[in-house]
Inverse folding.
């Protein structure tokens, strides 16, 4: 959408830049930058602690964002919205809290073989510490979750299924609502890594029936260092905190302490106030455009790119299953992804290369690295045309 590129100061200033790495992190609209700057310059105060005007205003602004997130993801209550440092921190919180209050040695946790490291390492750590068993759902050659295998793996020993809404390498959109139904029938909880889902798809966590859903602010056109953990309140109120400190308490004595109700129970210490306010501005920006329109535009970009890729010799796209989001990871015969990304950078094109924080996915496809382009609402058809023009020039240099 040419109309929206001007809203992003970096892209407006660097008019020749073709930015195709939004799955890693998105650029920020001026409204987000302005909201953070205005808070520090005109409104700054701590939250939940002071009775003076600045603190009261900061608390109001901070609390309003919880309401915005609730609306944006379709949660029942603001009490189900926990602010975290990001998706990684949120998954670690869930894993450690469930380990303290829900899981026992011998319980099983289902993941896929194509997880981002953030949805693998926290569960590996818990497995090593307490003896729970990790099992992995295979994916097809086309990059789809093997639903038949998932059904066979689900049994009474499975206590948690933790999967991405969208695979960060393959771009496949997983059938979360169906998976939730299957998991719940077997008494398992469903954790959804929504880092690639929330920025690109209309979202209603009640309709999906996920028990937990997580995403990061910096992938949602907001600042770094902030994210959201949605959890069903009936679960959150039974879960123990994993960090202690200010704001998560009810009463404290030298011998014993009691904890606040969710969400504050899981938000120890002074929170990321400015970052949360920036996240709220990002949600305002996206809602003014409409997530349905954004998803439709990104699909247009995807189809345009896939048509171009058909003309590239030696190309192998990782993940051709439908439905698919605006992510295309690929390899090209006799071309190293790092060389490709480095030379494209010299031509003003920013793409991702490497293992994409998902080494098991690379192992599944028998490679060590790949290249990836990914789209956002500020990308245009011209961006894609220029990318392929410069890609062909680069490939001619590497041949």
């Amino acid at each position: 959408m040419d109309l929206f590129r001007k809203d992003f100061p970096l892209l407006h200033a660097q008019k020749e830049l073709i930015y195709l790495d939004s799955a890693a992190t998105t650029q920020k609209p001026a409204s987000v930058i302005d909201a953070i700057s205005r808070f520090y310059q005109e409104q700054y105060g701590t939250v939940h602690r002071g009775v003076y005007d600045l603190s009261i205003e900061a608390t109001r602004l901070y609390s309003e964002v919880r309401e915005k997130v609730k609306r944006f993801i379709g949660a029942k209550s603001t009490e189900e919205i926990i602010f975290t440092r990001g998706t990684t921190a949120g998954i670690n919180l869930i894993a450690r809290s469930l380990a303290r209050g829900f899981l026992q040695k011998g319980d099983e946790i289902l993941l896929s073989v194509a997880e981002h490291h953030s949805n693998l390492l926290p569960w590996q750590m818990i497995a090593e510490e307490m003896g729970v068993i990790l099992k992995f759902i295979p994916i097809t050659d086309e990059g789809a979750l093997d639903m038949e295998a998932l059904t066979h793996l689900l049994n009474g020993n499975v206590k948690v299924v933790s999967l991405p809404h969208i695979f960060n390498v393959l771009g496949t959109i997983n059938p979360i609502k169906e998976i939730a139904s299957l998991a719940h029938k077997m008494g398992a909880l469903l954790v959804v890594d929504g880092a690639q889902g929330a920025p690109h798809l209309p979202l209603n966590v009640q309709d999906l029936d996920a028990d937990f859903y997580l995403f990061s602010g910096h992938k949602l056109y907001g600042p770094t260092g902030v994210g959201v953990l949605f959890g069903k309140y009936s679960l959150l109120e039974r879960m123990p905190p994993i960090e202690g400190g200010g704001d998560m308490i009810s009463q404290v004595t030298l011998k014993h302490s009691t904890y606040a109700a969710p969400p504050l129970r899981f938000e120890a210490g002074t929170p990321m106030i400015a970052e949360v306010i920036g996240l709220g501005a990002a949600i305002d920006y996206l809602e003014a455009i409409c997530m349905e329109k954004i998803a439709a535009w990104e699909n247009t970009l995807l189809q345009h790119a896939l048509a171009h890729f058909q003309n590239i010799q030696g190309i192998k796209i990782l993940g051709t299953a439908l439905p698919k989001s605006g992510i295309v990871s690929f390899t090209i015969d006799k071309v190293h992804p790092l060389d490709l990304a480095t030379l494209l950078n010299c031509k003003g094109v920013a793409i991702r290369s490497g293992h994409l924080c998902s080494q098991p996915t690379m192992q599944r496809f028998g490679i060590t690295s790949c290249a990836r382009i990914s789209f956002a609402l500020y990308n245009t058809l011209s961006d894609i045309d220029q990318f392929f023009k410069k890609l062909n020039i680069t490939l001619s240099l590497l041949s």
Observations:
- Residues 8 and 30 are 6 Å apart (CA to CA).
